[in-house]
């Protein structure tokens, strides 16, 4: 008997481009949401675009809640505000933090939410994954994706450049994430989606092919990376997990977040992780140097010192990364300290 089934959750409206923020009201109208919107934002994005968002919903008396940290307390505060203000849906305005918080809160409240990213910092801004630190856990969990994404490249292009290069590096890391996923499929019978794997790889390839156009101050950079982030988010939706975009390089990054908190940002850490894990997959003659060159060409870090972490922190993250999640990767049951030093040295990371 045929017994396969799948449920792919995707945003319905995705607007990317110059000035599309002014079409937010129109994009929301098409979703048949009702009631008061609650804007979930953080201080800088609120200053930059809060009024442009709320004025489009003036007839529905919008409310705003400003959050600062990605924490369960912030989610509670959003839930309490939404209940007190009788919100009908949420609009997340900002980088990854307010978007993750709104994603979790809207799941809890059974309300729809719309994402208005102001930084193209990673593919969580469009995906059905949310990442809120809980105890020692740093990786994402499933949460419904936004019903719509309105990504204004004029705003995204003015965000700090390192957030854009982090978004690019998060996409480049899809190369090794897919290699890890295929490996887990072969060795551990982990379910693999050809569609999601191919889309994720193609997304990384297209971004690298456009690397020459990714330059500080060019709005086209925001356009290229945001389209890739959407595509990567779709790959995760097809897979029903973060597997197409998260392998051992992400485990390494999640460990760095615990070992060296606040020193480097997600996309930059996964980029460096990807150089290392590509070497582990394919050896000296593999494509690790292409990944390194692609990262360098878009101004993303390629070494421990560029990340602002110590060599020892890199080694500790590499040797312990396999323990943090039930996700089989090239790190297998763990690599030794000697192996970690060797690969980090051979790739010039330390
Ligand atoms: N859901 C997921 O799958 C994933 C979630 N994450 C999470 O996302 C968060 C990191 O995302 P970020 O976007 O870096 O965090 P963020 O929302 O804190 O933004 C970073 C900084 O950039 C500022 N900013 C944003 N847009 C700006 C603009 N246009 N102009 C000037 N400043 C602007 C913010 O005010 C903030 O200070 C972390 O909590 C991380 O754990 C990371 C990877 C994946
Ligand atoms: O960052 C992500 C994909 O780029 C999400 O992956 P994780 O599930 O490892 O948090
Ligand atoms: Zn990522």
UniProtKB/TrEMBL annotation:
Essential cofactor(s): Zn(2+)
Protein's cellular compartments: Cytoplasm
Alphabetical list of InterPro entries matching this protein: G1P_dehydrogenase_arc (IPR023002), G1PDH (IPR032837), Glycerol_DH (IPR016205)
Binding site for Zn(2+): 170, 250, 266
E.C. no: 1.1.1.261
Residues reported in the UniProt entry to bind substrate: 123, 170, 254
GO MF assignments: glycerol-1-phosphate dehydrogenase (NAD+) activity; glycerol-1-phosphate dehydrogenase (NADP+) activity; metal ion binding
GO BP term (any one): glycerophospholipid metabolic process
Binding site for NAD(+): 96-100, 118-121, 127
Any Pfam family hit: Fe-ADH_2
Annotated residues for binding of glycerol: 123, 170, 250, 266
Superkingdom of the source species: Archaea
Catalytic function, reaction form: sn-glycerol 1-phosphate + NADP(+) = dihydroxyacetone phosphate + NADPH + H(+); sn-glycerol 1-phosphate + NAD(+) = dihydroxyacetone phosphate + NADH + H(+)
Cofactor binding annotation: Binds 1 zinc ion per subunit.
CDD domains: Gro1PDH
Record SUPFAM superfamilies: Dehydroquinate synthase-like
Record keywords: Cytoplasm, Lipid biosynthesis, Lipid metabolism, Metal-binding, NAD, NADP, Oxidoreductase, Phospholipid biosynthesis, Phospholipid metabolism, Zinc
Any Gene Ontology CC annotation: cytoplasm
Pathway: Membrane lipid metabolism; glycerophospholipid metabolism
Family recorded in the similarity comment: Belongs to the glycerol-1-phosphate dehydrogenase family.
Described function: Catalyzes the NAD(P)H-dependent reduction of dihydroxyacetonephosphate (DHAP or glycerone phosphate) to glycerol 1-phosphate (G1P). The G1P thus generated is used as the glycerophosphate backbone of phospholipids in the cellular membranes of Archaea.
Alphabetical list of HAMAP family matching this protein: G1P_dehydrogenase_A
Family matches, as PANTHER family: GLYCEROL DEHYDROGENASE, GLYCEROL DEHYDROGENASE 1
Protein name as it appears in the record: Glycerol-1-phosphate dehydrogenase [NAD(P)+]
